[in-house]
Amino acid sequence: MPSGPLMVIGGAEDKLRRRTILREFVAASGGDRARIAVVPTASSLGPEVVEVYDALFRREGAADVVAVRPQSRDDAHDPATVALLDDVTGIFMTGGNQLKLSAIVCGTPLGDAIVGARERGVVIAGTSAGASIQSSHMVAFGGPGSTPKQRMTQVAAGLGLLESSVIDQHFDQRNRYGRLLMIVAQSPQLLGLGVDEDTAAVVERDERGHEMMRVVGRGAVTVMDPARITTDAFEAKRSQPILASGVVLHVLPAGQVFDLTERVLVPPVPQVDPGEAAEIAEAEQDLRQLARDIAAADADPIVLRRRLARRRGRPSHDPDGAPA
Amino acid sequence: MPSGPLMVIGGAEDKLRRRTILREFVAASGGDRARIAVVPTASSLGPEVVEVYDALFRREGAADVVAVRPQSRDDAHDPATVALLDDVTGIFMTGGNQLKLSAIVCGTPLGDAIVGARERGVVIAGTSAGASIQSSHMVAFGGPGSTPKQRMTQVAAGLGLLESSVIDQHFDQRNRYGRLLMIVAQSPQLLGLGVDEDTAAVVERDERGHEMMRVVGRGAVTVMDPARITTDAFEAKRSQPILASGVVLHVLPAGQVFDLTERVLVPPVPQVDPGEAAEIAEAEQDLRQLARDIAAADADPIVLRRRLARRRGRPSHDPDGAPA
């Protein structure tokens, strides 16, 4: 069985209106056959968070929702807790404090069971802290700012579901360019993935074994590729800005697909403007008519020109007011 | 005479402590022979701003400071106002509203006199709004956020002192990646320059005519090079995130030099760690002594090894606690 998709959600996914991301998660987990485990360990709340997601997932048609809520590494070793994941089709890790989540779950039977579940096809989703923990190298915490500075953030070990990349979330909203640039400058074999709120990076392995990422939701996913970086991260002092020259950026809105293994954009399909398409179709029709008229040899040029002008006089399409 | 340097300052330059940038400006303007014009038109204040900079520049040793304060395009056509720039060696444009500044100054005799002053070697500095106006294509205003969105900012025409680039300021502090990315996605012949607070991009033309930028101050200058961008900026709707894939980033702290014409980093000189250098020098000395001892043929290996161990027993240097 192919491994299940990862859904790396940038936090604050819409819960009331469009619910694009939660819907996609439940659908990917099997829709009305979905059995979902909610892991709220990152949160300082507990049953309240589970109640919210329980209601949300059932509203989207999920068959069953179960809470898996270890509060200590002992809990995460408890076979009864681990067994809760045996027959789920989707796992959802909530937001909160990713270092609390990783400190309790990583390297325990429960952590291993999450990784194992993905290998048998289960969808693994996480939002905010639950997104961060999916990478091998996890942003533990850090400050805001656009400019990378030497000690502005801290890395810890995550679940390792995504090995190519380090994940940051609330990216558009919380000014996190600096901390993600600092991390990739210090670890240039990693890609940086900055996921906006109400946005998800959906990562699936294709038949070649490549990690293919598709963007879903309201914002964008920003990919930082430091493969050819020039940096002084190995000698910059204290909290000084660091040199990070030659990082390639990809800002990817919904619908875009990026190959995380090859580090290239899958070329987008150009969008055809419906107004422009209608105009071209009309012009082609005019030309065919003109050719027929000429062939029929009733071809007084003035008559032809007037007929064309009448046809063209119809209002044209401009549905959006976009620049011409 | 070669054209004068531009100092593009990201706002909030230090005025009380190190004063790195204001010092560099006065020194470049001639030190105790500096005659400086302050243009406070962007500011909603007026005489107060001039008083502050008057005091600051005189404290750094400037010979004279004069206010050039047009409040309308008529003022900017007044020959008496324009004549104030005749014998200055430095011009300093304050912060405030760059659209007010450009609306009053650009395309007037005063605007032409600023451009002309640079051509005869005068230093042209601007902070915040006064920085923005230096480019040909000027950020007029716009919202914050890391992700570029279709209508998040507005471009107007600036003074045109810097043609290769569009300038944004308060870059680290105000989360302005998105708006600068939007602009370069729509105008990929331009570089984006994001200048942090208390930081300056100092741009001078070299003998080849290249615009060479050197970074001064506490933060960094971020260069966005969209030469190879893939974008949907020409068809993205309303305020949606736009695709901006393949933008090359250069985050440049103080001391770095970047060729804006060729769009390449001038390779930094690697720093030598003083502790490491001392250790290597010592090891070389040991080896020379060993060679002498062997050559002198008093070479009992045990004696030699003990002697070496005694020398090595001295404490080694680790002044900074940086990673080994």
UniProtKB/TrEMBL annotation, chains A, B:
Described function: Exopeptidase that catalyzes the hydrolytic cleavage of multi-L-arginyl-poly-L-aspartic acid (cyanophycin; a water-insoluble reserve polymer) into aspartate-arginine dipeptides.
Family from the record: Belongs to the peptidase S51 family.
EC code(s) of this entry: 3.4.15.6
Signal peptide interval: none
Keyword annotations: Hydrolase, Protease, Serine protease
Enzyme class per UniProt: hydrolase
Protein name (Swiss-Prot/TrEMBL): Cyanophycinase
Reactions catalysed: [L-4-(L-arginin-2-N-yl)aspartate](n) + H2O = [L-4-(L-arginin-2-N-yl)aspartate](n-1) + L-4-(L-arginin-2-N-yl)aspartate
InterPro entries, A to Z: Class_I_gatase-like, Peptidase_S51, Peptidase_S51_cyanophycinase
